[in-house]
Amino acid sequence: MLIRKAPEFRYSQITPRDVYFNRRTFLAAGTAAIGALATSNSLFAGEKLSGVSKSPLSTDEKPTPFDLITHYNNFYEFGSDKEDPAANSGNFRTSPWTMKVEGEVGKPKVFDLDALFKIAPLEERIYRHRCVERWSMVIPWVGFPLNALLKQVEPTSKAKYVAFESYYDKKQMPKARGTGIEFPYVEGLRLDEAMHPLTLLVVGLYGEKLPNQDGAPIRLVVPWKYGFKSIKSLVRIRLVEKQPPTAWNLSAPNEYGFYSNVNPEVDHPRWSQAKERRLPELSSRNTVKFNGYGDQVAKLYTGMDLRKNY
Ligand code: MTE
C-alpha cells in the first residue's frame, strides 16, 4: 500500500474515532464486553440475511467487533485513510447492480442483485483477514464459494486465470483521484485458486448485508492471501488465458506481486511480515504462513519459489 503513515501503526490509528467507538468505554470494557458490543443489534444498520448456515470451515477465533470491521478499511475509491471509506461511501448506489461473468466460458451470464444472492446457499464463514500492512482481523463473512458461480458459467479449456474488476464512477468516488492507484481496481487469481473451496464471494458480514465500505453489494475474499487480493464491489469477472493485471502490482510491481500469499518468510521491501497486530489487541503475534490455511492451500504452490512468486 502507499503507506503515508509510519508502517508500524500506532494505537491511535486503530481506534481512530469515538463516533463509532467510545475509546474510554473500549479501554475499560475488556474483551467480553467488546464481544457483546460487537453483537449488539443497535449497532447494525444493515439488512438481516436469511437462510445463512454456519460453515465448518470457520475459525473458532474471536471475531473482531463489527464497528472496527466497518470503520478501519481500505477502499481507495473512497479515500486512502482508514476512516475514509465509512465516512465517504454512505451515498454509494449499490442497487440496481449487475455483475458480468464472461470471457473463456461456455455460458456467459449477467447477474442482477436478486440473482447474485441466489447463486448458492449462503454460509457464514469466520475467516482470518491479514492485511499486507500488518494488521489482522477475524471476520464473520456471509457468502458462498466462488466455484459455485464459476461452475455455472462453464469455463472452457482455455481458461487459466480469473480477472476481477470493481465498480468505478468518478462522480460517486471523487476521492479516488490522487490515491496513487489506477481505477477501476482490478485483481486476479489462477483458476485453481479461484476454484478452491475457501475462496468466497461475500455479500454480508455479521449476518447482515455488506456495508458499502466493506465492498457492497458483492466482493471477493481469499483468506490465505493479503487483504488487497479481496477486491470489493465487483462488476465483472472474466475468465482468461493469461495472467491478468492487478491494481497494486501495476502501482508498485517490486512491492506487490500477483500471488500475494501471506508469508512471514518473505518480507515486503519496506517492512518485515513476520508479525501482525490482531485488532483491537495491542500486542503483536507471529504471522502464520498462508494465514493459517496452509493445510488446505499449500498444495496449490508445490514446486513454486514463493520468494520469486511473491
Ligand atoms: N477493493 C477495491 N475495489 N478498492 C480497494 O482499495 N483495497 C484492498 C481490498 N479490496 C481495495 C479493495 C485492500 S488493500 C484491503 S486490505 C482490503 O480490501 C480491505 O478490506 P476491508 O476494508 O474489508 O478490511
Q: What would you note in describing this structure?
A:
The longest helix has 16 residues. It is globular and about 45 Å long. 18% of the residues lie in helices and 22% in strands. The strands form two sheets. Strands 1, 4, 5, 8, 9, 10, 12 and 13 form an eight-stranded mixed β-sheet that branches. The two termini are 15 Å apart. The chain has one domain: Oxidoreductase, molybdopterin-binding domain (Sulfite Oxidase, Chain A, domain 2, Alpha-Beta Complex), CATH 3.90.420. It has 310 residues and is α+β, with helices and mostly antiparallel strands. It binds ligand MTE. Ligand MTE binds next to loops.
Quaternary structure of the protein: single chain
Mean pLDDT across the residues is 89
Number of strands: 13
Largest sheet: 8 strands, mixed
Order of SSEs, N→C?
A: HHEHHEEHEEHEEHEEEEHEEH
CATH architectural label: Alpha-Beta Complex
Q: Strand percentage, roughly? A: 15-25%
Uncertain segments: 4-44
Assign the CATH topology.
Sulfite Oxidase, Chain A, domain 2
Summarize the structure.
With about 300 residues, the protein is an alpha+beta fold. About 20% of the residues lie in helices and about 20% in strands.
